[in-house]
Amino acid sequence: MSILQAKDLKKIYGSGENAVHALDGVNLAVEKGEFVAIVGTSGSGKSTLLHMLGGLDRPTSGDVVVDGKSIFAFKDEQLTIFRRRKIGFVFQAYNLVPVLNVYENIVLPIELDGEKVDKNFVNQIAATLGLDGRLNALPNQLSGGQQQRVAIARALAAAPAIILADEPTGNLDSRTSQDVLSLLKVTSQKFAQTIVMITHNEEIAQLADRIIRIEDGRIVAGCQEVR
User: Fold this and answer.
1) In 10 A of CB 208, how many CB atoms?
2) CA 153, CA 88: separation in Å to the nearest integer?
């Protein structure tokens, strides 16, 4: 069953002769538990697509369905709550809170949502990502690779339906990138998470189950039909 669908997704900036079609009728479906990489050159529309899939921006037309819910039918406040509970984000910038330790950074979104933290689950994720000995450390005491692992743990901890990763290894060297992405794949399988990752790195993309290519706002390869 598809956990994520984009239906005729369009995003147009400007109007008339100055109109830029960042997305031009994108249709795709991602299955539960799948690890999908979206690749494309700069300006191809991949970041815009990821933002639409995560409800961070609204399309000009079309729809996104997450776990059976049409997300753009929600009002802004409802969408914020739905996004926090159903979608985990991993960005190129780690976005860790510098005054909070590793454990506090991981559980922050859960606590902001007023939910009870499953400490055993968090500890299990931390152990899988090799962070179990660093839970009391502050972000400035960690390497770049360790900080990105914390960001991944934070995305996993709320057990979202989908994890969206935006160039998650862009600030890491090639060896650390491979290590972090391998761990992301292992954790997604272990905790039954669905991952959609955008990257310009072909080598990193090969770790995914399926590669979708986007050019000029249109998907040109790797698409699975929306059902």
Assistant:
1) 21
2) 10
Burial class of residue 191 (count of CB atoms within 10 Å of its CB; 0-12, 13-18, 19+):
middle
- Residue 199 vs residues 9, 33, 37, 209: alpha-carbon distances, Å: 20, 19, 7, 14
Contact status, residue 142 vs residue 131, Cβ threshold 8 Å: no
Instruction: Catalogue all structural domains in the chain, each as residue range(s) with its CATH number.
Output: 32-211 (3.40.50.300)
Asked if residues 53 and 7 have their Cβ atoms less than 8 Å apart, the reply is no
**Distance between CA atoms of residues 160 and 70, nearest Å:** 16
- Tell me the pLDDT band of 226, cut-offs 50, 70 and 90: very low
Q: What is the per-residue pLDDT across 99-133, written as a single tens digit (0 to 9) for each?
A: 999 999 999 989 988 889 999 999 988 988 889 89
Instruction: Give one DSSP letter per residue of 163-180, joined into a string.
Output: EEEESTTTTS-HHHHHHH
State pTM to two decimals.
Answer: 0.86
